[in-house]
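Sample pair:
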Amino acid sequence: MAEPLRIDLEALALRSGEAERLEIDLVAEAPLLGGEELPIEATPIATTIDVSRTTSGYALRLRADAAVLATCARCLGPARLELAIDAREVDQNGSVDSDLRSPYVADGLLDPVRWLHDAVVLALPERVLCRPDCAGLCPVCGISLNDVDPATHVHEREPDPRFAKLRELLD
């Protein structure tokens, strides 16, 4: 098994105020949404990581574009989500404040694969739709309302049960 990719921030030898841009291709693990694994359409993902040295640590930025394949929550058809990832982290050495410590940096090593995975998960919408105006499924017959003309797709209404005795008189 290959060693996980780590970026040695100290090896960049940045002085306070200096920055470095890294262009790398990353293979992120498919995210889970509601227990369903959502495959990433194209891997590896071209990723840009900006590392800026601060007086006591690093300011980090990760940018990438990813497409995730899923199932539409309304019509149960295929959905393709295009995500523009732009995530930022701060890691200040020796700080006890958890807001100033990045969970992706340990012992001066940045874990970009885990960071990208978490950024993809955070970029996912609450509800996956195949398109913003998805009409969903017909509650009577289950056909996708995206595939039919709503004006022509009608069903006979169920008779009102309150008039059942009157209908018996007609029989």
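The beta strands are 7-8, 19-26, 32-33, 36-37, 45-53, 57-71, 78-92, 105-106, 109-110.
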